[in-house]
Each structure stands twice: as structure tokens, then as C-alpha cells.
Automatic annotation (TrEMBL):
Gene responsible for this protein: Ttf1
Protein name as annotated: TTF1 factor
GO molecular function, one term: chromatin binding
Organism: Panurus biarmicus (Bearded tit)
Domain Myb-like: 124-172, 173-255
UniProt cross-references to SUPFAM superfamilies, sorted A to Z: Homeodomain-like
GO BP annotation list: termination of RNA polymerase I transcription
């Protein structure tokens, strides 16, 4: 299919598809579209977010079966072929002949790229090496000075995963503050996020950016924009004194405060309605595990709030009303709330 058609067809399964590059759309059209349609026929929705234990086991099974099929002698060779230059050509040929893309993603309703990244994380022997020693941190700084942000090269030199070295360098590259956020730091974070969102809005829709500039109200706090992934390493650089994970956590707390400010969501009649709606919606998902729940969709059950807010409300419900909740599975907790607590709340309402 052509690019526009592919994007249009993928939009049914991936709501944020308009933010994906053309080259990625082409790959997804080849690797994902047919799979997604097949899952749809079976009544299975495409998933994002944290992988479940069941999905991890399926990836393990898919990798082991592919190794058995091809005779490749380790998952590391299969998934990190560049580490074995002498076997590279043979492995690439075997992967092509035996349809590696299809086999690795079998039975998992997610984009192929995410499944592949998850498999690499699971099977990378360099990914579970514990804390960095003082010597390793010094080496990391030295290699970054020599090779810049070529994390693939640096990961090979340090025998750590790409993600591990990139994140660790992000933490140690400057004097990071671990105490409470100062007013100045918080303002820097707000300005950095605002700048990123303005730039994004301007590139997507110059006319709306112009009207936004004319307003002195905080119209830039737009739910759809704020919930999109943000370039945290760029924001980290602008803040200067915090690493990216701290910036992300702080922004989420600011966002929760802003979106819920002035809303009496959990008081009186509104509070009862919110609890009732949340329990009903959670029961409708038929999820076996919290990671299977699309918390973003559930935000509408209790108001225009961030997913973290909904998750905290669910936590309060189970702690307050479900006896011995720590011993129950996620689905057992939902069933208890639905069968025992929901009728009480509805009667009270």
C-alpha cells in the first residue's frame, strides 16, 4: 500500500500514528498491518505500555523456537548480530530465509519494533550487571568525551547495554541535585516543557500557534499535547541541575496538580460517581493484570486527569475496601470491588 493509505489504515490501531515518521510507517505497513488486522478479527486490541508476564514468556518461546529452527546458537547472536562480525552474513541470511520478523512477534498484539526492543532487553547479557563502580563511571565519562553520544560504540567498550550507558551518563554528566526542587528549578522545567510544546505546535499548525501567542492564558496546557512523549534529554539539558528521570517525575506531579486544580472530583456526589464509573470501567476491561489496563482511556471515567491520578484512585479503592488485597490477584480485586463494593456505592448515591 502507498504511504497515505498505510498511515490511514494504521491509525485504526495506533492513535498517535500521525506523529510517526514516514520511514517508520513504511516498516510498520510491512511488519505490522497484516498482524494487526488478524488480531482485530480475533477481537484482540493492539497494546502498548508495560509487557505482561505472559507476553514475556511468549517472547522467550518465540526466540527459543527461532534458534531451534535456524541453528543459531545463542539469543545474543540473534539479537545483537553486530557483536559477532564473523557470523554476521550467515545470521542475516537465516533471519531473512526463516522470516524473523513474523516469528519473533507471533502471538503478541504489539508493534514489531516494541517486541524486538523488549526481546533485546530480555536477552542482553550486558543488561543486568548491577551498579556502576566508581571506575566504570570514570570510564564512561572518558568514552563519552571521545565518542560523543555514540552509545552503541560506548556500550561495546564497556560491555553494558546501549540504554544502560546512555541513562547512566545522563545521571552523572553534571552536578545533579537530589534534594527538593527549588522554585528556580521548577520554573526552568516549566519553561523547557513550554518551549518544546510551542515548537511542536508551531510545526504542526502555525495558525493555532499564532492564536496561542495572542493569549496570555495557559492555553499551551492542552491535554492531548501534554500526554504525548516529551524529549526528556533535551529538557534535562535546559534545566541543568536534574537528570531526565527527575524532570519527568516532577513534570508529572506538576501536570497532576494543574489538571486537577479546582476540580472537586472525589467529594460528595461527584466522588461517588467517579468511584462507581472507575470500578465499572475496570471490570469491563477483563484485565488479568494492571499492566494490561489502558489507564489513559480510563481517565475519562473520573474526569480529565492524568493516568497517574486514576491509578492513585484505584489504589485507594483497593486499600480502603478490599480485605487482604495484597494476597489477591488484580482480577480478584476488581471482581471484589464490582460484586461487593459497587452495589453499596450505588445505593449510597
Amino acid at each position: 500500500v502507498d504511504l497515505d493509505t498505510a498511515r490511514q489504515e494504521l491509525e485504526e490501531f495506533i492513535p498517535h500514528v500521525r506523529n510517526i515518521s514516514d520511514s517508520s510507517i513504511k516498516k510498520m505497513a510491512g511488519r505490522d498491518l497484516t498482524r494487526f488486522k488478524e488480531f482485530k478479527k480475533q477481537g484482540i486490541a493492539v497494546k502498548f505500555g508495560r509487557f505482561t508476564q505472559k507476553e514475556n514468556e511468549q517472547i522467550q518461546k518465540n526466540v527459543e523456537e527461532f534458534l531451534s529452527l535456524t541453528g543459531i546458537d545463542s539469543a545474543e547472536k540473534l539479537l545483537f548480530t553486530s557483536r559477532y562480525p564473523e557470523d554476521k552474513d550467515t545470521i542475516h541470511r537465516l533471519k531473512t530465509e526463516h522470516h524473523f520478523c513474523e516469528k519473533i512477534s507471533e502471538g503478541i498484539p504489539r508493534p514489531w519494533r516494541l517486541i524486538y526492543y523488549r526481546a533485546r532487553k530480555m536477552f542482553d547479557p550486558n543488561n543486568y550487571k548491577g551498579r556502576y563502580t566508581k571506575e566504570e563511571k570514570e570510564k564512561l565519562k572518558k568514552y563519552q568525551a571521545l565518542h560523543g553520544n555514540d552509545w552503541k560504540k560506548i556500550s561495546e567498550l564497556m560491555s553494558r547495554s546501549n540504554l544502560s550507558v546512555a541513562m547512566k551518563y545522563s545521571e552523572i554528566k553534571s552536578a545533579i541535585n537530589y534534594g527538593p526542587w527549588t522554585e528556580e528549578e521548577t520554573q526552568k522545567l516549566m519553561n523547557a516543557v513550554k518551549e518544546v510544546l510551542r515548537r511542536k505546535l508551531q510545526s504542526e499548525n502555525p495558525s493555532s500557534f499564532f492564536s496561542l501567542e495572542q493569549s496570555n492564558r495557559e492555553l499551551w496546557i492542552d491535554r492531548e499535547k501534554l500526554y504525548q512523549p516529551l524529549p526528556w534529554t533535551e529538557i534535562e539539558t535546559k534545566v541543568g541541575s536534574r537528570y531526565w528521570r527527575q524532570c519527568k517525575q516532577k513534570w508529572n506531579s506538576i501536570l497532576t496538580s494543574k489538571v486537577t486544580r479546582g476540580q472537586q472530583l472525589y467529594r460528595g456526589t461527584n466522588g461517588l460517581k467517579a468511584k462507581i464509573n472507575l470500578i465499572k470501567r475496570l471490570h469491563e476491561t477483563k484485565a488479568e493484570d494492571a499492566s494490561e489496563v489502558n489507564w489513559d482511556e480510563l481517565t475519562q471515567a473520573i474526569g480529565d486527569v492524568p493516568r497517574a491520578y486514576v491509578q492513585s484512585k484505584f489504589y485507594r479503592l483497593k486499600v480502603s475496601f478490599v480485605p487482604l488485597w495484597k494476597r489477591k490477584t488484580f482480577s480478584e480485586i476488581i471482581d471484589y470491588l464490582y460484586e461487593k463494593k459497587l452495589p453499596e456505592l450505588e445505593e449510597k448515591l
